[in-house]
Amino acid sequence: MIGITVDIEDMSHRYGDTTVLEQLNLHVPAGARHAVIGANGAGKTTLLGLIAGTSRPSTGSVHFGGRDVTHLPLHRRAQLRMSRTWQRPAVIEPLTAIDNVALALRGLRLASARRTAAALLAQAGLAENAHILAGRLPYGQRRVLELVTALASRPRLLVLDEPSAGLDDLEAADLLQRLIGVSDDTTILLTDHSRALVAAVADTVTVLERGQHLRTGPTSVVLRDANPSPATAPAAAAPVGKQTERNPSRARPVLEVSNLNSGYRDHHVLHDLDFTVDPGEIVAVVGLDGAGRTTLVDALAGTLPIWRLSRIILAGVDVTGLLPARRARIGLGTVPQRQLLTPALTVAEQLRIADVEVNGLSSELLALAPWLPRRLSQAVNTLSGGERQILAVTCALARQPKLLLLDEVTEGLATPVVSQLSGLLRLHAARGVGVLVTDGPSGHLAAAADRVLQLFNGHLQRIR
Amino acid sequence: MAHATTREHGAGHVSMDPIAQSSAVHRPRAAHRLVVAAALLAAVVAPGVLDAYTISLATYALVLGLLASSAYVLTNVAGLPTLGQGAYLAIGGYTAAAISHTITTNGPAQLIAGAAAGAAAAAAIGVLAARTRGTTFLIITLAVGALTQTLASRAVPLTGGDAGLAVDPITVLPGASLVTVKGYLYLYALVCTVIIGGALTLMLRSRFGLAVRGIAANEPRARADGYPADTYLWVTYTVAGAVAGAAGAILVATRHTIAPVDGGFVVSGLALLAALLVTRTLVGALLGATVIVAVRDLIAPNVLAGHASALLGGLFLAAAFARILIRPLIHRSEHAPARRSP
Questions:
Q1: Which of A115, A315, A431, B148 is the least buried, fewest Cβ under 10 Å from its Cβ?
Q2: pLDDT tens string A52-83
Q3: CB contacts < 8 Å between A and B, how many?
Q4: Residue A261 contacts by C-beta under 8 Å, 6 or more apart in sequence?
Q5: Cα nearest neighbour of B227 on chain A
Q6: Does B329 touch chain A (CB under 8 A)?
Q7: pTM of full prediction above 0.90
């Protein structure tokens, strides 16, 4: 099963004389995460309602997976495996949480639907309150219940109207985790005022203004260009402004880490690390083998779970607990020690899945890897270790990250290439990219860094 | 601040203690079972201890109880307040009478015919009625009730007009003798009531019943879960019509007469009040009907002769006020710190 595409053609909607949406065209591919943003009254909720079938458009059409659903009512669209949530969590208050979810599991007999519902609620952390009437749940739990209900039928399209409305920071972070965890078999369409949520969840964004389509594009681009008006300005953006006021000469660090604790099941590796990386700064973390350098990179990249109270803020967005792909979207470029390349692919395919255009590679990157254009059809696993390393760095840099995270990247590289790489990092740093590298205590990159932190017994110490 | 406001709006009263909640849920369930068992026992032994007049009142209480059950399903479960269920009682009753005159004296056959006629009429009217909600629905049911009563008065060749129809006693089994003893008729009505009540209970506990509750409480959510609200409410309206029709057939079988006033506005109103009087459950509807019949026909003539309506009015007011007065007490006990079980 895969998500369904949503196509909106020439859709307009009027309430009486007021036009709330005008001539909207939108294509949302299968499995996409698409956000609709805009100030209050831009027509976001109206658009979502028209897509979900809560209301009908005055003109135009809606297609799900190529099928015209313009005239299908809400329940018929739900039967096509579309789920939706509302700005105020819509739960059935006189029924227990379990029955709320069981109702959404239409294909099952009631008894087994209830068992499945109990399991789903337990997974969502609502086991204790599963038998409580939904009307008596605290607001945040109702929100969770509504989302569990909406996801219970494994929808192919999930429409979320302001899912973070009314949630506190912890609840919003929890919501984010749940949304990020939604299978790619589900197309997600959402609107939310939290820029952080939109940035972390959505791949693409449509901006509406007074019912007019302003633009649609990749989230990072649209959010960067968007003027954060008070209505669209998220909570996460607010501290940036405050900090700039206090300290106008200094930009906010691109990476802020506090209380970082991580490790493996019974092995606590990192203890309460606090550090920052500024834009344009190259910070090296050195340490002996086993000091926890790779653990640190994995924790920052999101491939290793972090422990309570840890907090990672990337480019002003709290990415604590976000999946690696989301962090990448927010601006983290990672070259892990265990390369993320796919051996069976060709170089060209590898670049394509990394979303890198060969023709768009900068001359500096081509200077680092002059062989690249000639060997596009070669399989990655036939490249040398150093070439693979270079390819991984190229992929990471070509996506113009805000923070570049390199783990033991010089391993297996020839000295001239290392100096070349070092120069390249400096060049990107000069453009405002923050760089965090791990290296041996006497490594090349450490020597070229602005600041060197030593990791010892899981604690960080500045040594230069 | 906006944040806090949203929260207050959304949360309502929240008791955070799950154990307090679950025990609060379980206690009434046990009490409810006890009430059902006691009521059933009392109903079964009643013919042995009560005089013939009281038995005939108890029989009518069962008929009104079934009508109240149909009003309960619509009003309390589906969220559609009705003042017209008497119409379907009349349709079921006249159908049973027609069957008795033309085809068979078999009671169960008349019952099935009455229920089917009630269902068919409700299904036809429900096509429009079940698309409406709230007061619009209430007014439609009121109109249906008034119209049916008027038709019953005017269609003299079919219904005997305001004087009504006299109907022969029923047989229960083919070839068996006619049942005329009041105690047996009462037991026939009791068995029918228990079977219909049991079937309704099963329906309400099924996914269908759950979905109807969901539609009543939050229609957009239920529709987003994939339930066609209008269709589900139409089915519910049809089932309620069948139950009311069955009540009409039982009335004819046990009282041997049917007249337009038997399905009139007053009866519809009493059925709705019975559904709301005691507790908001199916058994509550049956008990409510019993209380109403007892107050109107047993207590009022002895205490306040000629003022039965006043006494009933007082009863309804008292029940309403008691609800208002008791609610804060219930809330307080629910919010009181609960003893933690291990």
A1: A431
A2: 999 899 999 999 999 999 999 999 999 999 99
A3: 107
A4: A268, A270, A271, A272, A273, A306, A307, A308, A309, A310
A5: A75
A6: no
A7: no
